[in-house]
Amino acid sequence: MTETSGTGGTTGESRTSGEVWVVGATGRVGRGVTARLAARGLTVVPVGRSRERMIAAAAEAGLPGDAKVVVAGSAERIAEEIVRERPRVVVNTMGAFAATALVIARACMPGGHYVDQANDVVAVDRLLALHDEAVRAGSALVTGAGFGVLATEAVVAKLCEGRPAPHRVRVDSVASVAIEAGAFGAALAASMVDALAAGGRRYENGRPVTSRLGAGPQQLNLPDGESAKSAGFASGELTAAHAASGAPFVTATSALVPAAPPARALLPPLGRLLSVPALRSFAAGRLARVRIKAAPRPRTHSWGHAVVEWEDGTRREGWLRAGDGMDYTAGVTAAVTELLARGVGRPGAWTPAAALGADLATTAGGTFVLD
Ligand SMILES: NC(=O)c1ccc[n+]([C@@H]2O[C@H](COP(=O)([O-])OP(=O)(O)OC[C@H]3O[C@@H](n4cnc5c(N)ncnc54)[C@H](OP(=O)(O)O)[C@@H]3O)[C@@H](O)[C@H]2O)c1
């Protein structure tokens, strides 16, 4: 194994090496992505804050014994290494995307590509705002490359294919995830706290408006006979469903948001508390250290769902079925990364189906169930 030396590797301003860097290769998503990309023959470089853990991650993923690793412990330090070495694609699984995504994505430009799994609305909207910069730089930046965003965005795109823009869209995201024993983890804790702090949002007359966190609770009868409850929050799914459909009225719910009345009543005050930055980082820090027990996934499948309505009264409904939501996320990120590494994809900042088409959802292991 070799650490980067900080010399060489730069191939010119807009040219990149053939390497794919995985930031957070020891994490749950990062491990899955590293193993999948290594198995597909890509030159994968684990990036993280501990040399020992990166070497172990490389070995676990089946990378060769002399595989390169990069040691850097903050988005800023990682960005410096990217600028120096110009990898072709950087996968960011370190979380806290509202803070880390822009720093790392900007370092990939010009010419390099970027992928993350953000699904809080702040992080997704910030990354998408880099679109013009990315086009000029010849870089593809893909955010929301996970169950959250793709599983609903792809269904909306399928239902709207070849039709005029609908009037109203609702998307529901029902991830089913097995829990690994251990600490909750900083990345997931930051995502949950950021999502709560972002509150609720919907599109009305084509504009994003604030709504109550936990609004519009749904009781969903899933196609496999199981059921789930979900409620509204300001997710990347909302942004993507609006962009994919062009509908003026869009709402998004998630099964991660408690839909039962007592818990739902607590969400708005909790969200307001967490909008104070000091309280937010305190809460994320505490949550990250919470020890959790292993548990099987609560439902057989993860489901993305969309209901699309046109002004003439036409209504279409569809689902995307996947297995464990975390495994599917690793599958989506790996599929997007491989395509970008092989030169497929357009410059710009995108959600995954917007970048690479709705069938990416099946390439990554999902199955459409459309009416
Ligand atoms: N869109 C979706 O559907 C979806 C699905 C699943 C996950 N996610 C999101 O994806 C992210 C990753 O999830 P996960 O479950 O894989 O998290 P995780 O297991 O906690 O992994 C996070 C990784 O990031 C690394 N990391 C954290 N802080 C770092 C720093 N300052 N510098 C360098 N590396 C750092 C960690 O390294 P150490 O070993 O040093 O701690 C670890 O390897 C989370 O934000 C999560 O919310 C999204």
UniProtKB/TrEMBL annotation:
Q: Which residues form a coiled coil?
A: none
Q: Where is this region: Disordered?
A: 208-228
The source's superkingdom equals Bacteria
What's the protein here called? Saccharopine dehydrogenase NADP binding domain-containing protein
The record's section on PANTHER family has: SACCHAROPINE DEHYDROGENASE
State the species of origin. Streptomyces xinghaiensis
